[in-house]
Amino acid sequence: MTQQVIIITGALFGMLSVIFGAFGAHALKKTLSKEQLKSFETGVKYQMYHAIVLLVLGFNFEYSTNAIYWCFILGIVLFSFSIYGLVLSDSKGKKLKFLGPITPLGGLLFVVGWLLIIINVI
After folding, report:
1. Cβ–Cβ contacts within 10 Å for residue 64, how many?
2. DSSP string computed for 36-103
3. What values do phi and psi take at 8, rounded to 5?
4. Is 113 helix (H, G, I), strand (E, B) or coil?
5. What is the mean pLDDT of each run of 10 residues along the chain (122 residues)?
6. Which pLDDT belongs to residue 1?
7. Cα–Cα distance between 80 and 72 in angstroms, integer?
8. How far apart are CA 100 and CA 79, in angstroms?
9. Looking at residue 22, what is its pLDDT?
C-alpha cells in the first residue's frame, strides 16, 4: 500500500465519520431511541479513531504494513458499518440480525491491527 493511499483512505473514513456523526445527531435524533443513538455514536467514534490511526500511519509510513492497513479498513467496515446497519434496520422494525455476529469480527480486526503495530515497531 502506498503512503498516499493510506492517507487518502484515512481522510475519507474521517470525513465519512463526521458526516455520519452529523446525520446521527440531527437527522436520526428524533427517529432513534437513546440506546440506538448511543450505539450509532459508538460506530462513529470507532470509525474516527481508526481513521486517525490510518492518517498517523500514512504520515509515519515506516511503521505501516499492508496487513495493518487492511485490518483497520476491514475493521471499520465490519465493526462500524454493521452497527450502522443494525441500528438503522432496527429503527425501521426490520433488524438485520445477521449483522450482529459481524460486529465483533471488526473489533477483532482492530485488535489485530494494533497488535501488528506493536510487532512492527519492535
Report:
1. 22
2. HHHHHHHHHHHHHHHHHHHHHHHHTGGG--HHHHHHHHHHIIIIIHHHHHHHHHHHTT---GGGTTHH
3. -65, -45
4. helix
5. 96 98 93 95 98 97 94 98 97 94 98 97 92
6. 85
7. 11
8. 10
9. 96
- Residue labelled with grid coordinates 496487513: 67
First to last CA, the chain: 21
Per-residue pLDDT tens digits for 58-90: 999 998 999 999 999 999 999 999 999 999 999
Among 45, 55, 46, 57, which Cα is nearest to 107's?
A: 46
- Is 20:47 a contact under the CB 8 Å cutoff? yes
Read off the C-alpha cell for 115: 497488535
Q: Kindly report each contact of residues 98-101 with a partner whose C-beta sits within 8 Å and lies 24 or more positions away, as own/partner.
A: none
**Which 3 state secondary structure label does DSSP give 33?**
coil
| Whole-number Å distance between alpha carbons of 40 and 84 | 6
Nearest to 101 by CA among 82, 116, 76, 120: 82
